[in-house]
Write a structure and sequence with these properties.
The protein has 167 residues and is α+β, with helices and mostly antiparallel strands. It folds into two domains: 44-127, Alpha-Beta Plaits, CATH 3.30.70.2740; 130-167. It has helices spanning 2-10, 22-42, 60-71, 98-117, 136-140, 143-154; strands at residues 47-54, 75-81, 86-93. It has a three-stranded antiparallel β-sheet with strand order 1-3-2, with helices on both faces. The longest helix has 21 residues, at 22-42.
């Protein structure tokens, strides 16, 4: 912990919460859960585009730098779980403004593609959903067909989350 604190202080950390003990961990988890709501309320009238990627720990700092650079001209927040290579990027903007939203979408695509280039994944925690289904072929290659076949065997009537995974 002393090593981590030293690095944080050298890089301008204003405070360090260790999360030691049940009470301190509970407080930190509460802060973490309120982050999204705080961002949303601070930018009333804007909509979020939330992305999460994960990369090998050896590429984490490069991925953070790349992501920060990609969203530097947008209203964006980066945070994550450095211990497992997960990065969350929340961008707040107006999807009705086609030109601006195209910039948001391009930042998303670039960040996901860089994560895949670093042998990471297009999603760290939030799942594929509709928005990331377009990256499945790039991430999984030939094994995507096997996944589709398994899905068809396990769910022949397409009842499990229809239209969300294999569009």
């Amino acid at each position: 912990m002393a090593f981590v604190e030293e690095i944080c202080q050298q890089n301008g950390a204003l405070s360090i919460d260790r999360g030691i003990g049940a009470e301190e961990r509970a407080r930190l988890w509460e802060i973490r859960h309120q982050t999204y709501e705080s961002i949303k309320r601070y930018h009333a009238g804007l909509s979020p585009l939330i992305m999460d990627v994960a990369v090998p720990l050896s590429r984490y700092s490069e991925m953070v730098d790349f992501s920060k650079n990609k969203v530097r001209d947008l209203t964006a927040y980066l945070f994550g779980h450095a211990g497992d290579g997960n990065i969350h990027v929340h961008v707040m903007d107006d999807p009705q403004d086609a030109k601006r939203w195209a910039r948001v979408e391009e930042a998303t695509r670039s960040i996901v593609m860089k994560a895949l280039e670093f042998e990471g994944t297009c999603t760290g925690e939030h799942g594929i959903g509709i928005g990331k289904s377009r990256f499945m072929q790039k991430e999984h290659g030939a094994s995507l067909m096997l996944m589709k076949r398994l899905k068809a065997l396990l769910d022949p009537e397409n009842l499990f989350n229809p239209g969300k995974f294999f569009l």
